[in-house]
Every structure is written in structure tokens, then in C-alpha cells.
Amino acid sequence: MQHLRYLDYVDAVARCGSIRSAAEALHVAASAVNRRIKELERELDTPIFERLPSGVRLTAAGELFVGYARRRAADLDHVRSEIESLRGLRRGDVSMAVSQALAPAFLPRTLVDFQAEHPGVSFAVKVLDRERAVQALLDFEVDLALVFNPPPGRGVRILAQARQRTCAVVAADHPLAGHASVRLKDCLKYPVALPDGSLSGRGVIDDLLENASEQPLAALVCNSFEMMRSFACQSGGVSFQIALGAAGDPRLRAVPIEERSLPASRLVLMTLRDRVLPVASARFAEHLRGELVAMHQA
After folding, report:
1. Which residues share a beta bridge with 96?
2. pTM of the prediction?
3. CATH pick for 166-263 out of 3.20.20.70, 3.10.100.10, 3.40.190.290, 3.40.640.10
4. What is the pLDDT of residues 259-291, one digit of tens each?
């Protein structure tokens, strides 16, 4: 499989933007990487990279070749996992991109539950916004993506989804904490922390505020749900998030917002269309699908 290593060289240089950085990531000499790329360019009779003073950039032919290299790598992962499945799922790797709200409680619990049955499976998780998560799928950086309200796009396949209500997240001793539900106007009496435009929750809140008689003066606008929750906890204010995001933190309460015009958020599990997942990723996708189905029916 020596030739596959050369494909890894091209992929690494494309991701890093320079031969030296790629060599460091691969733990090989930069001269070796440069030599293999020049050999490939001679075989193809066209440049793969445009050499620049600050690094390299893919040519049009290079874009095509990198796509081929990534598909080959994905195919090899699948073959390896099929071989592993002949012996049962004793080990494997799952790579995925997830929304920030899943990182504190939901995803760690789900990983632990899965690894209790499959202790040899390891995970590589990227916490990304929804656009970058979908792009990571398209770039073969991850096998799965689990994100809220993903943007419409070609090339992806939805494996499962569940609805999540938007909640007012407050401290456990907050005046709103004991309510079964709240209205938006109830929340605006307190300091408000809003997600910025990079987070999917901001679009949901903006839709809700569009027809509201009162507009909030945000005390904090932030791209970190963790910071917004801490702010709400320490200031006696309110932040907004889906219920899963506040789960597992005894300091907080997630109170559903009761508004007819407030759409539910969609938690969506995706992979590349037409991609055959490695066995470990396919098994974990099935595990997640069960979690989402149960969540949707609750």
C-alpha cells in the first residue's frame, strides 16, 4: 500500500497549505513529500499545486486529484472495517462533527454508553458550527455530523433527526426556574444573553423576536453557549438554548418557551450521500439513531 501513502502526502499538503507544514504533520522529511508530489505531477503530466511565496495552492487538476485521493482513503477505511467486522466489532475509529450544545452532556454520555458495549472503539470529535460541520463531511474529514438546523446542501444524507424545543436557561434559584413554561416577554425582564449569528439558535430567536412588541437589549452576545449559561447563572439573567444543552448541570434549569411562532430546532444526524460507512461508524450511527428516535417520541 505504498502508493496510498503518496495520496496521503497530497491530501496533507492540500489541507496544510504548505509542504513543510504537511511534512511536520506526517512526521516525515519535507524533501520526501516534495519529491513524491513532483513524481505524481510527472506521471499526471500536469501540476497538482501552484507554488507560491507563502506556500502552495491546489490547481484545478489538483482539486480533482485530491477528491480522488480522499475517496480512495475512504474506500480503504471501509475495506479495513469490513475485514474487522469478520472478527466482530472489537475495535475501530469513529470521526464526527457535532454542534457545541451537545458537547457538555449528551455526547459524552452517548459515547460512554456505546463504549460500554464496544470498548475498543475510539472517537475523534470536532465541535463545529453547522456550516463547517457539513463541509467537514464533504471534505472526508469526518464520517458523521450531528448538528442543529443544518443548512440545505447537496451531497449529504440524513440518517435520523429529532425535534428540540428552545428553552430559557436560567440559574436553579432564578424566579423563572420553577415555571413549567415561559413567554418571551417574561424573559426580557432580566439581562439577556443571545447567541451570535454563527450559532443556529440565533436564527430561531430572531424569528421569534421579529413580531415581538418588545425587543431585548442584549447584555451579552456570544458564540459560546458555555459562556452564555455561566453569564445567566451569575447575573440572574436568561440565555437561550435547546433543552439538551443545559442537561446535566445542576446549577441550571431549562424552561421551555411557549410561543406559537417559535419553531422547534432539528437535531440532525448526517453522512455523505452514497458513502458506505466503516463498520464502527455505521454501528455508532445506529446507536445515535435509536437515541434520536426515543427523543423524538418523548
Report:
1. 125, 144
2. 0.67
3. 3.40.190.290
4. 776 767 789 999 998 888 888 898 899 999 998
